[in-house]
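Technical annex, item 7. During the second reporting period the consortium partners agreed on a shared format for inverse folding records so that results from different sites could be compared directly. Each record opens with the tokenized structure and is followed by the designed sequence. A conforming record, contributed by the partner at site C, is shown below for reference.
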């Protein structure tokens, strides 16, 4: 009896073993084929890549001038803009780290140090910022499409695209409690406070008058415009990939070209396209949560969707993702391999909530190294990374970063 059962079981298993490879093989390769066909289709219609324009557009009411850039740069490094005079824009967007921060989540008010050594001073009652600071390099091109069209007044900003234009973005960190404002001033008080501080510094009065002329030269609108102008000067449109796209066929190597092909065939270009390698749309990928946060960051409308980031200058901007949860490009690619294979890395989401374009991702381990070497053709160090020697307030340059 037992033997009959065993034989029966063996026959069934054996049959399955014979049957499975026979039927799974074609099923799998037809799935692969259809993914590849799908990617080709999408790429023909969607994914176009190109060099960045070498000139940047400014809003009509804020043309770029050397005076504004000079002023904006000093403001960017001056902690006078923060409630407790301890944080500057550069505390989180420092040229030493590609104008990003080399820290998974930002530490603003009451922070000390720079990059991965930045931490809160004790005692501390300021929450950690819930997101990773993206680079401001090339943010001037945000929103650019594959036809190289963009409107600087409409440029989408932040991981959830909640603000449009560098001008509108510039005052947000000053008003945010944990980034720059702190607890001494309310949201309504902080900008007038900063404007009055700047007005009491003669060097700033001169610089604002040189940049804007009109009286009163130091006001909210001009503060935002100067910060935006400096950031608009931080462009890096001459990576090896740009040179390749402009016709220098030797600017990237054979294996990097192969990596570009793999990048497209793997379906990456369905979202990372256009000259910035971003469609600037929100997508749900199910990135792992960062354990440093008590509450999960659910993104806009609790959708868990985040904006496709640029893939330029990744060499300088680790860690990656909206919450800095993936340390290296290798980890990012392993994450994509997981979600493409149906493995969820965020328990708050179910498979059917992921972006439909995730289904088109086809990635295996052998493609990772070529894709990473291709991504390295998108780095360009030629941006002005100099730090002012001093700022007009006399406060420590870059804030409390020593
Ligand atoms: C405490 C760290 C911190 C400080 C200080 C800070 N930022 Fe940021 N910055 C961030 C983080 C984090 C984000 C992303 C926030 C989000 O997407 O919700 C960001 C996003 C940005 C972006 C959007 C880039 C893009 O592509 O979407 C710009 C531009 C920017 N910051 C400029 C500035 C300026 C100008 C200042 C100073 C007035 C400043 N930041 C101060 C951390 C900081
Ligand atoms: C469905 C659209 C989509 C596809 C397809 C896609 N990405 Fe992304 N990518 C995103 C979004 C959205 C993020 C940010 C996710 C987040 O932080 O929650 C991102 C983040 C990244 C980052 C991190 C960048 C940074 O600065 O933090 C890298 C690197 C990256 N993707 C590379 C790739 C590669 C390589 C592929 C192909 C294997 C790929 N992506 C496919 C949308 C996509």
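Designed sequence (site C submission):
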């Amino acid at each position: 009896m037992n033997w009959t059962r065993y034989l029966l079981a063996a026959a069934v298993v054996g049959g399955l073993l014979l049957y499975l490879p026979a039927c799974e093989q074609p099923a799998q390769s037809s799935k692969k084929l259809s993914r590849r066909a799908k990617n080709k289709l999408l790429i023909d219609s969607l994914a176009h890549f190109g060099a960045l324009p070498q000139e940047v557009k400014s809003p009509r009411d804020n043309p770029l001038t050397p005076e504004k850039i000079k002023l904006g740069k000093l403001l960017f490094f001056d902690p006078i803009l923060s409630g407790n005079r301890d944080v500057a824009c550069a505390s989180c967007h420092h040229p030493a780290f590609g104008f990003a921060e080399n820290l998974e989540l930002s530490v603003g008010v009451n922070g000390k140090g720079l990059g991965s050594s930045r931490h809160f001073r004790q005692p501390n009652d300021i929450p950690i910022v819930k997101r990773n600071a993206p680079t401001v390099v090339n943010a001037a091109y945000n929103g650019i499409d594959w036809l190289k069209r963009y409107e600087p007044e409409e440029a989408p900003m932040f991981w959830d695209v909640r603000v449009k234009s560098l001008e509108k973005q510039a005052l947000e960190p000053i008003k945010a409690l944990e980034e720059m404002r702190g607890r001494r001033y309310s949201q309504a008080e902080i900008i007038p406070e900063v404007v009055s501080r700047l007005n009491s510094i003669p060097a700033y009065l001169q610089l604002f008058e040189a940049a804007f002329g009109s009286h009163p030269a130091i006001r909210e609108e001009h503060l935002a415009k100067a910060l935006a102008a400096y950031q608009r000067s931080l462009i890096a449109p001459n990576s090896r990939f740009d040179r390749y796209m402009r016709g220098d066929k030797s600017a990237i190597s054979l294996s990097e070209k192969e990596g570009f092909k793999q990048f497209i065939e793997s379906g990456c270009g369905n979202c990372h396209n256009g000259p910035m390698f971003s469609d600037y749309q929100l997508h749900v990928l199910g990135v792992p949560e960062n354990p440093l946060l008590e509450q999960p960051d659910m993104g806009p409308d609790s959708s868990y969707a985040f904006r496709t980031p640029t893939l330029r200058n990744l060499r300088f901007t680790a860690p990656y993702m909206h919450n800095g949860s993936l340390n290296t490009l290798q980890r990012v690619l392993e994450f994509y391999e997981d979600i493409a294979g149906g493995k969820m890395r965020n328990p708050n989401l179910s498979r059917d909530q992921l972006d439909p374009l995730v289904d088109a991702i086809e990635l295996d381990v052998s493609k990772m190294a070529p894709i990473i070497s291709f991504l390295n053709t998108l780095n360009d160090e030629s941006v002005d990374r100099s730090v002012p020697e001093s700022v007009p307030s006399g406060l420590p340059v870059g804030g409390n970063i020593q």
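The mean pLDDT is 90. Residues 36 and 244 are 25 Å apart (CA to CA). All partners now use this format for quarterly exchanges.
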